[in-house]
Structures are given as C-alpha cells and as structure tokens.
Amino acid sequence: MGQCVTKCKNPSSSLGSKSGDKDPGSKSHHKKGGGGCKEEPGPVCGGKASGDLLANGTKTMEATAETPVIPATSPNPRKEELMANGEEFSLLRIEELFSCYKDEQDDAILEEGMEQFCNDLCVDPAEFRVLLLAWKFQAATMCKFTRKEFVDGCKAIKADSLEGIYSSFPCMLLEAQAEDKFKDLYRFTFQFGLDSEEGQRSLHRDIAIALWRLVFTQGSPDILDCWLDFLTENPSGVKGISRDTWNMFLNFSQVIGPDLSNYSEDEAWPSLFDTFVEWEVERRKKEEEKRRCAQPETEESGGGSSSSSSFV
Q: Which example biological process does GO assign this protein (predicted)?
C-alpha cells in the first residue's frame, strides 16, 4: 500500500497504489468479481487535527473525523449470522466487501483493487491511516490484502462496511499513541516495507526514509529530521537499513537528547549511529562558524552599531 505505502520506485507515492493518488471524488468502478457488490458512495472525508506536546517533547496529533455518510441499504435476507455469538458485524458482508475489490485471478486484493478501496474509503493511499489499517489487518505485503488478512482485520475492528472501516480510524489513531502499541506498529512497519516475495531482509534506503516519515506522523522525535538528512546525503554510502538499525532507532530517538551530548560510542549502538553523530556534530560546528562569521564586528565590540547610526 504507498506506492502502496511505497513498494516503491517512487517512495513518495502511495501506500495503496503504485500509480499515486486518485481524486477522492471520482466515481467508483468496482470489479465484477465473485461478490456481485452494489456500488455505494464512499465515505465523506472530514476532520481536524490539532497538535499538543507530549512530556518527551514530541508533537502528538489529535485527529477527529466526521462520520461518513452512506445511504442506508435495504435489508439483506442472508444476514442471518449478523449479531450471532454477540458479534457486531456480519461475516457475510465482510466477504462481500472483499469480493468488490479482489483480483479476478488471485484470491487477494492487489494493487488496482487496493487503489480503488482507498479511493472509496476517501483516504489518500500514502497517508498514515492506511498504514494503521494495514497494521490492524496484519498485512504481510504492501499493495496486497489476502482474504484471510482482510476478513480477520475487519473482524478485529468490528467493521463490515466502508462506513464501519472509516469510522474506526479515530480509534486507531488514538490507539497508536500508546507507547506499547506504537512500538508494535513501528516494528510492523519495517516488515511491511520488505518485499517478502523477493526475500528482502533490509529496507532500501529511500523506502526506509519514506516509512520513517510516515510512521512518526503523530509524534516526530526531535532528532528525526537530522537523521533523515544524514541518510539523504548518505555520506556513509548506506544502501539499505537492517531490522536492527530500524528497531534501535526508536530507542535512540527516545534516549539521546537533541544536542547528542549523552551519546556514547561505548554503548551497543549500530555503527551507523556512530557515523551519524560524528556527521551531525561536525555539521553543527560548521553552521555555528558561519553564524559567527556573519555577525558584524561592531556587535562583538558592543554598542558600535548605535554609534555608527548617530552619523546618519
């Protein structure tokens, strides 16, 4: 999901589509697969986000969303399992919803179906909410939901319709702010970014950069921008990010202060972090020297600027 979160020849494209965004207001064209589903207007996007500072100094986004408006449909005589065993969803409706987007040849929702699914949900395939949905569905691969992932995921969030899935996003956003849940989401994101079919064991550097920006949507660590600048300039020549480096960066961002003064090479950090700290400290020294050189000499002597202005 970016180019399907980014399977990514273009890491800035979408999680649900390699071809990028589509106009959320465009008309749906569902495939006529095994489910024979009726077209329904997608949820109406809406909501505001406000920022508050957490105790650790990162910014958290409090997102609210308007309830999507979907016209009521006529009763389905086959919904006999609805509310069975105390469940608040219909397994049959989940299966029918899956059939609206599944590939004609494969028993899974693939890139084209994923793009349409996101379009009908009125979400940008590259946004954080789509990553959250993939996390709740425990999707193994970008741009793909297997039948089991889709059905089990909808059951987990107790939704059997586009409206139900859309309405669950605010709860997902709040859930991801909990420390233990975010850690699980963070580690999931690494695995999700790998191409399992090719047996990848590390993330391509550009994909890792895109996923770091995405997963920290609700609370960006102070050091994140410097870290991503380092990876973008790539002085160390790194081509891929290992699982250990990915996982340890979360600890690094929580433990090491923004001035990097408490970083120690004697601790068990990945060697790439040593290179980053050296690079960042040197970069800051150069910036400080430039600022000093740019200061007028009169400011250093004090009061010089005021005396010169008296001659004007």
A: positive regulation of protein neddylation
Domain at 7, CATH number: 1.10.238.10
Say how far apart CA 307 and CA 299 lie, in whole Å. Answer: 11
Question: Does the model's pTM come out above 0.85?
Answer: no
Give Rg (Cα) of the chain.
24
Q: What is the pLDDT of residue 299?
A: 53
Q: Alpha helix (H) ranges present in 146-198?
A: 147-156, 162-167, 169-175, 179-193
Q: Which tokens hold the place of 297?
A: 């000499």
- Summarised one tens digit per residue, pLDDT across range 21-63 is 444 344 344 443 444 454 444 454 544 334 443 433 344 444 4
Name the residue with higher pLDDT: 2 or 161: 161
In a domain, 128, yes or no: yes
Handedness of CA 207, 208, 212, 213 (dihedral sign): negative
266: left (phi over 0), alpha (psi -120 to 50) or beta: alpha
Is 149 within the bounds of a domain? Answer: yes
pLDDT in tens, 140-158: 999 999 999 999 999 999 9
Q: Rounded to a whole number, what is the distance in angstroms from the first to the last CA of the chain?
A: 64
Other CB atoms within a 10 A radius of the CB of residue 176 amount to: 22
Query: Average pLDDT in the 227-237 region?
Result: 94
The CA-atom distances, in angstroms, between 219 and each of 95, 126, 187, 222, 255 are 35, 17, 16, 9, 15
CB 222 within 8 A of CB 58: yes
Q: Are residues 14 and 149 in the same domain?
A: yes
Alpha-carbon distance of 312 to 305, in angstroms, equals 11
